[in-house]
Amino acid sequence: MSLQALTYLVVGASFALYIGIAIWSKAQNTGDFYVAGKGVHPIANGMATAADWMSAASFLSMAGLIAFLGYDGSVYLMGWTGGYVLLALLLAPYLRKFGKYTIPEFIGERYYSNTARIVAVICLIFISFTYVAGQMRGVGIVFSRFLNVDIGTGLTVGMTIVFFYAVLGGMKGITYTQVAQYCVLIFAYTVPAVFISLQVTGIAVPQIAFGSEISGGSTYLLEKLDQVVTDLGFAAYTSGTKSRIDVFCITAALMAGTAGLPHVLVRFFTVPKVRDARASAGWALLFIAILYTTAPAVASMARLNLTQTIQPGPVGAATGNLAYDERPQWFRNWEATGLLRFEDRNGDGRIQYYDDSNDDRRVQFEGYGWKGNELEVDNDIIVLANPEIANLPDWVIALVAAGGIAAALSTAAGLLLVISAAISHDILKGVLMPHISERRELLAGRIAAGVAIVVAGYLGYNPPGFVAQVVAFAFGLAAASLFPVILLGIFSVRMNKEGAIAGMLAGLIFTLGYILTFKGVFFPPLLDNTPDHWLFGISPEGIGFVGMLLNFGVAFSVSRVTAPPPVEVTQLVERIRVPR
Amino acid sequence: MSRQGDVRAYWRANLRLVGLCLAVWFLFSFGFGILLVEPLNRIQFGGFKLGFWFAQQGSIYIFLLLVVTYAWAMARLDRRYGVEED
């Protein structure tokens, strides 16, 4: 069977599975629709949370990012897992005890204010839409590369599937499809990783292969990699180029942002008990850690494979570089997508891939007759191209395609649900029409989910130039706006609505302002995005951490000079602190 | 002891546990993986430099251990202070 037919078969089978689950788990009432009737087993919720959380970015882009960043890529590994410690210890059990349907609802009741609730809805919608557009884009990339359909068709198919189970099944449908999607995506991620580990080191477990000697040699993988990349002028793989303070702040912003992401938080509303919420966070982190400890191993091996494919001989030797006419098939496949680009700058018919911005080595490289780096590699192809680079069987490639789609769809569905719940439950029922009947609220939720899917699809097809940039900043904004107010709402009885609203606005405006100053987004950047312009040397990616501290500071100060919260609210706080 | 007194003691015990867990969380990620990464990289750990290993592997294992320990320890606290769900 051809690769394409096989891919259609595997992806089609996974879709049939998701639709079957959707029909089986149709939502009957608003409780089912928003929080799956609070009857999800902690292990199932752990898997659903893992699939919800691991997006197209985790599945497709992260290993590629780490492959090119080396040590600096650790910010994503620690940031996107360490946040679960904050979530499990500081937020999840208490939000479950609160026992309602949405995050803005918690903020609105805890701060006895519809204004606070609406500010929270705005933060939530902004964070979720930027994120969901990225997922739709991921679906499009996988479809166009592996199924040879154009991105628009791919998006339409993906949207139809999500529409079916999100609108019909609500949170209940989403939860059980996410369990299936987790199984598909983790299998699709680990199988090629095991094959590649075997090829490179002869050891099957990627986490161990990562620290082992390469096959047929007595050098460690990482030692070899450091040497191979520094020979070509790149920074050593195991030491980064970012400043210490920037690595610190980016990691902290990603951690707090993870803990403040509404679609992840709301998953902990779906388990029966407080104890289950704590256990469920442990299961979720276990399921996530399987991918997150595999990713850096895959990254290092992919970087080594790629570098040695392009530079098979000694650096500087006339025949040391791969001749363009002899490039392998995967190279041609990815050139066709535009994600891999070659330009023969020195006209020698061979590919030079090196760091041409390294001033210390410029003279040396020019001495070889090299006239600049000739290869551009998009981060996103590392995971997708890996099975081809390593010559793995076709079914593995088909599996990776299905896994990429599962990762993107599961996250998209979770995000769409929190958007629809924010509209039907927080805005419509909470503020505009408090007396709406349950049936009509459910209908409104379904319509909102449908509209959100269409908007997300549109954004995926016509990504405003800034989507890719903004996705990373969604974390900074979540860290600077939602995370501190939820945390203070639980741990500080004295925190009042004035403090919370002032804190949220201060964190949001400061962080957004800083990002816009350097990234522009809607207008040309006001300052160059270089370390000498940054505040304390902190990049826009890490500024959410400072925004978070500012939020805490402002909230604390304002709350001390304004009236304490009413007695019902202090009772609410005391109630959510104990399981019974 | 009154229910109110119990609840206060329960909350203080919880805060102590959270504080301890977060101290470990900080030490292994921000401490060993970021602030102290250079001195630790002088120590070889199998095929890894130790600081690099903490940043890309070790810290994640510690996170998992922390979340599991916290869930277990809190279930015990719930029972000791009689606030567990039935």
Description:
- The complex is a heterodimer of chains A (580) and B (86).
- Chain A has 23 helices and two strands.
- Chain A has two domains: 3-300 and 387-463, Up-down Bundle (Sodium/glucose cotransporter), CATH 1.20.1730; 306-386, no CATH class.
- By secondary structure, chain A is mainly alpha-helical.
- Chain A has a two-stranded antiparallel ribbon.
- In chain A, 58% of the residues are buried.
- A two-stranded antiparallel ribbon of chain B has the order 1-2.
- Chain B is built from three helices and two strands; from the N terminus they run ααββα.
- Chain B has one domain (3-80).
- Chain B is elongated.
- The two termini of chain B are 21 Å apart.
- By secondary structure, chain B is mostly helical.
- Chain A binds chain B through residues 66, 71, 73-74, 77-78, 81-82, 84-85, 88-90, 93, 207, 210-213, 220-223, 238-239, 244, 247-248, 251-252, 273-275, 278-279, 281-282, 285-286, 289, 292-293, 296, 574, 577-580, and chain B through 7, 10-11, 14, 18, 21-22, 25, 29-30, 33-35, 37, 41, 45-49, 52-53, 55-57, 59-61, 63-64, 66-68, 70-71, 74-75, 78, 83-86.
